[in-house]
Sequence to fold (424 residues):
Amino acid sequence: MFNGATVHGIAGIRALRHPAENPLLIAAILTTAAGYGMWFIIVSWLASSSDATGAEAEIRNLFLDGGTLSQVLLVIPLFPLLIWIIRAFLYAQLRATSVQMSPTQFPEGYRMVVEAARELGLRRVPDAYVVLGNGQINAFAAGHGFRRFVAVYSDLFEIGGQARDPEALRFIIGHEVGHIAAGHVSYFRLIFSQLVAYVPFLGQAFSRAQEYTADNHGYAYAPEGVPGAMGVLSGGKYLGAEVNTHALADRATREKGFWLHMSNWLSSHPINTWRAHALRDRSRPGRLMIRPPESTAWFPPSAPSGYQRSGSWPTPEQMLAVLDSTTLSVLSEEQFGRYPGVSYETPRNELRWASPVPIRTEPVGQGAFTGDSSTTGSVGPQQPGAYGYTPPASPAQEQHVDTPGTTPADATRPETPHSETGQS
Fold:
């Protein structure tokens, strides 16, 4: 209860915790304390104003007429009990209906759970279950009493179809075990921070900070699973293998506007583009409120963003010229896209997170999109000045920045020191 779930103490692994999480946790605790304080004041007032008249009597009746306010007054003091019952029922459901991972059931996945528990310093191996997914992509972590458990939807075992991607599953399991290691499923933490979920923007920001923390744990355990995990979150369990994670991450810097930010502010999880950007660039924590600056993009834009005026979008002929410039390096039956004018020597299944080499300097053809549909240019991740950021000459030269003790990715992917699947 007082030592935390890991050997690292109740604070967990500090280097893996998003810097905004603890301040937001304090805000959540204060919000919950204020909520209970307000409840006590209102109940005391109702008990002492039975003979009220006029406007005071009308306000009193609003709390006692059996409507929404009455229900709120009844539910708030029951939150601790309700949380306990819901967690107990969830654990019972998993034990009664799901397949428990073990040495005799899904041992490959269970080994990932055990190894993640060891890597992240858990005192005990959490229970692990496979839940019937019915097409849904999800996983979650929870607890009941001193017990901790993770559940993985069955569809996550099918990532990539026949060409399975165990590293993606490893990252997702590491993310869920990370929630446990960071104390996110603690009963007392939930009690003291539950009411913040009903505060617009603040509750969602707190949840996103926790998700970034869990992603940091997932990365520390399985950095090579990043492209597969982001692919399945954005493209699904089959097409996810075709998602160019660099292109996804770069869009975090170029998709702008109030409504795009609003979609993130109202989400309990970081939006996929921002999340991919945070997993690629380990020199700074994931963004909670404001998009990453465009100077952190790795590649020039290959297509317009929704923020730009439609008059700057390329014509069909201009974009066909760009697509035709990649036909020699992209087989017609593939859905994985290369950057125009760039040669790739990396196998496709490793390309999602690799920097393309070598760089060709000749123009890629008329109409290559650079934000101005009338321009022509060459592209490549190492072309200085094209987009304000120059990655290392070789991905193998990149170093971890903020996560000690992690295992570096192989030389085909940039090394970077972050639930869940779907809404894990």
The first strand starts at residue 99 and ends at 100. Confidence is low (pLDDT under 50) at residues 357-423. The beta strands are 99-100, 127-131, 139-144, 147-153.
